[in-house]
Amino acid sequence: MDWIKVVCNILDHRKIKLIRKGPEGNTLVLLWLLMMTEAGKCNRGGYLMVSDSLPYSAETLSMLTDIPLPTVQLGIKTFTGLSMIDQQDGAIYIKNWGKYQSEEKLEARREKDRERKQRQRQKERAKILALEGGNMQGDCHGGQSRDVTPENRHDRKDYETTEHVRFLFTGTPFSRLSETELQDLAKRHGFERLLQAADIAAETWRRSREELHNPGGYIQSLCASLVIPEWYVPFEDRKVKAETIQQRKAAKEAKEAALKAHEEAQMAARDALWASLPEERQEKYLASARANLPEGLTPPIAVLAMGKLLAWEASQL
């Protein structure tokens, strides 16, 4: 984030007044404002994180704010006591973060993403149901396929969804999450939110390649307070882009292959025409080639190539 929201009457807030009346009061108020700006820079929904796996500590805040460590420690204790911050999984979290940034815009973006994901999911489910309908017809004729019931259809849907999550986790530390952990996250937050959190987590890790000591805790925190990075491009959009690039590459390669085949065919035709000419006519074209080539640039291979070209052009008239 490039900015945060701070109400104009922040100094009139009763908690701020209490802080200012206590030890190091004005410095602690400055620390509070600096912590909010740091949370904005982190852009993790109010969490103060140096990286995806490394939270801010009192020492980190002291170094970044140039405020003595004992004062920072006093501030953390004071802010915690006044329910201004909380600490979850060792990370400092500014409570009611929505008051300090444009949550309504972020929520509008999240809602738009959810609606788009829902439409995509509905299309996928429609395809699955159509395929299942075909399988049911096959069962009637062959009797070999498993009967499709509401129960096993639900199981199949859950399996495919967790498989999608695992696909997004491919090659990342998050692939260590067990099926039980994934199902628990899905029940707690919903599959749509888990899918989006999984994709963002995996893409974030691929950009930083930082070590994660607790992948499950990271996904849990991301699901609970999902903030979409500005650089994030949804999986479906990346897939479409990749397919478009692949199609363009394939079209370019096909065009180059066709051009090469055409050139090879023309070369073969020129060679065949040249071989069919009597020696006197060949010598005539070679003499013309020597005359047309710049002085000093008459190696035999260049003269022969130019002679073949002159013979071919004459045959096309």
Provide key terms for this protein:
317 residues; two-stranded antiparallel ribbon
Give a description of the structure.
The chain has 317 residues and is mostly helical. Among the domains are: 10-100, Arc Repressor Mutant, subunit A, CATH 1.10.10.10; 103-232, no CATH class. The chain is 68% helix and 3% strand. The chain contains twelve helices and two strands, in the order ααααββαααααααα. The protein has helices at residues 14-21, 25-42, 58-65, 69-81, 103-142, 150-168, 179-189, 191-208, 215-224, 235-276, 279-292, 300-315, and strands spanning 85-88, 91-94. A two-stranded antiparallel sheet has the order 1-2. A hairpin with a 2-residue loop joins strand 1 and strand 2 (91-94). The radius of gyration is 34 Å and the shape is elongated. Residues 135-160 have low confidence and may be disordered.
Summary of the model, kept short:
This protein has twelve helices and two strands.
Q: Tell me the span between the first and last alpha carbons.
A: 70 Å
Question: Taking strands numbered 1, 2, ... along the chain, how are they ordered across the largest sheet?
Answer: 1-2
C-alpha Rg (nearest Å)? 34 Å
As a percent range, the share of helical residues equals 55-70%
Number of helices: 12
Structural class: mainly alpha
Principal-axes geometry comes out as elongated
- The count of DSSP E runs of length 2 or more, i.e. the number of strands, is 2
Order of helices and strands: HHHHEEHHHHHHHH
Overall residue-averaged pLDDT value: 80
Give the low-confidence spans. 135-160
- What fraction strand? under 5%
Describe the largest sheet: 2 strands, antiparallel
